[in-house]
Amino acid sequence: MPVLDAADPLPHRPRRVRRFSAGPGWVTEWQYDAVLDHLAGLADLLVWLDLPRRTVMGRVVRRTIVRRLRRQVLWNGNIEPPLRTFFTDGDHIVRWAWKTHDRTAARVGDLLNRRPDLTFVRLRSSADADLWLRGPLRSCA
User: Fold this and answer.
1) Would you give per-residue pLDDT tens digits along the chain (141 residues)?
2) Best CA proximity match to 33, nearest among 115, 90, 110
């Protein structure tokens, strides 16, 4: 099953998403505003990993620091910028994660109002996710 992620170059993403989502099965993060409605209209399952802000922020901060210190190549040759950019870049990944954490609830609520037929799974912890992944869908993988 194809997987699409945010590492695709932005200018080509809407076209790629439409081609990608025309297939019989697909999985993607629900992140890119320009294609959210398109994906939401086609989806038959929405899995929301709704972790507490403290969990998300701890993971984002640790991952960002480790990636920067190791100069780990991410995608398209990118590396994490210097840690000081947390203070100078309003869209720094740590600041972005903080600002956008609560937006997902509103987006999911809006989608469920528009698509009451959509199968929806809300996982509120890593333990919930592990349990769900070990459940009946395991045989589908």
Assistant:
1) 555 555 555 556 788 888 889 988 888 887 777 888 888 889 999 999 999 999 999 999 999 999 999 999 987 788 999 999 999 999 999 999 999 999 989 999 999 999 999 999 999 999 999 999 998 777 765
2) 110
Instruction: For the chain, give the number of residues.
Output: 141
Q: Are 62 and 49 in contact (CB under 8 A)?
A: no
Provide the token pair at 129.
């996710």
12 touches 23 (CB < 8 A): no
- Residue by residue, DSSP assigns 59-90 as HHHHHHHHHHHHT---STT--PPPTTHHHH-T
**What six digits make up the tokens of 32?**
């890119």
**Cα-based torsion angle of the residue sequence 103, 22, 5, 52 in order, rounded to the nearest 10 degrees:** 30
Helices and strands (H and E) in the chain: how many: 7, 4
Count of CB atoms within 10 A of residue 109's CB?
A: 10
